[in-house]
Amino acid sequence: MELWFTEHHNDCIGYSLKVKRTLNSEETKYQKLDVIESEFYGRVLVLDGILQTTEKDEFVYHEMIVHVPLFTHKNPKNVLIVGGGDGGAVKEILKHDTVERIVLAEIDERVVENSKKYLPSISYGLNDKKVELMIGDGIKYVNEHKNEFDVVIVDSTDPIGPAVGLFTEDFYRSVYDCLRDDGIIVAQTESPFIYGNLINKLSKMFKKIYPIVKPYICTIPTYPGHLWTFTMGSKKYDPEAVDVNNIPEIETKYYTPELHKSSFVLPKFLKDIFEEA
Ligand code: SAM
């Protein structure tokens, strides 16, 4: 019998992958966690029925959520990731020689443990000596740390369960205080095709708090809608003013200096969503 995993959205959209076998299924303290081996995308981490990352296309999301803010900041040393327990963002941050300390504030230690066990090609950076693993609510961590980080990356699940508070104005204000004077926040802000209203709402919040606010895009084969957004809030640096000729060379599969710039060029309907905010 053929087995398929299907992710559902808005009760009318489904995205399916053919499953070879299930490697693990458990109820953690916070969510239902599955690791499956898919026919085409390799191993896949699923939380509460929503695909988080796959071995085959994880590089797109993780490179874009990391290299765009880190190459926008002039000298990022301290980086905080909220969520991101799979370790994909950590793996990319470790490519930046300026970075001295990476704090990963992940609420669910079972995500970290499963990623280490089943997704080593994504999680291998988690044991690096620069990484501090803080198991707990990222909101609490941010509230308790002021003027400390150069870049904060919100690598969260969709706004359900423990992640609801990561999509609020209060949280983005606390992140502002957690950042140094020239700090940058980037959050994953979902698909404009499916969650355009959410992007509009989040853009409004960011514009109230950060002097420079810019959404940028990439294409992720396994995320719903495929066209994906990140929203950057910056206290000082403009990500579009980056000198692309001076970006140091690192090993990537998606990100390039040219793409850094072009990712801020938005399709009309998304530009409208952002400008109306
Ligand atoms: N790339 C992914 C995506 O967009 O689907 C997100 C990956 S990462 C696995 C998301 C992580 O956020 C999960 O491991 C989840 O446990 C964590 N998370 C959710 N709410 C959180 C919170 N309040 N504090 C810290 N981590 C949280």
From TrEMBL:
Keywords carried by this UniProt record: Polyamine biosynthesis, Spermidine biosynthesis, Transferase
Binding site for S-methyl-5'-thioadenosine: 31, 106, 137-138, 162
Transmembrane segments: none
SUPFAM superfamilies reported for this sequence: S-adenosyl-L-methionine-dependent methyltransferases
Any one Gene Ontology BP term: spermidine biosynthetic process
Function: Catalyzes the irreversible transfer of a propylamine group from the amino donor S-adenosylmethioninamine (decarboxy-AdoMet) to putrescine (1,4-diaminobutane) to yield spermidine.
Gene3D superfamilies: Spermidine synthase, tetramerisation domain, Vaccinia Virus protein VP39
GO cellular component assignments: cytosol
Protein name: Polyamine aminopropyltransferase
UniProt pathway annotation: Amine and polyamine biosynthesis; spermidine biosynthesis; spermidine from putrescine: step 1/1
UniProt family annotation: Belongs to the spermidine/spermine synthase family.
Keyword Transferase carried by entry: yes
Quaternary structure, from the entry: Homodimer or homotetramer.
Chain ranges of the PABS domain: 2-235
Name of the gene encoding the protein in the UniProt record: speE
EC number: 2.5.1.16
Lineage, highest ranks first: Bacteria, Bacillati, Bacillota, Clostridia, Thermoanaerobacterales
GO molecular function annotation: spermidine synthase activity
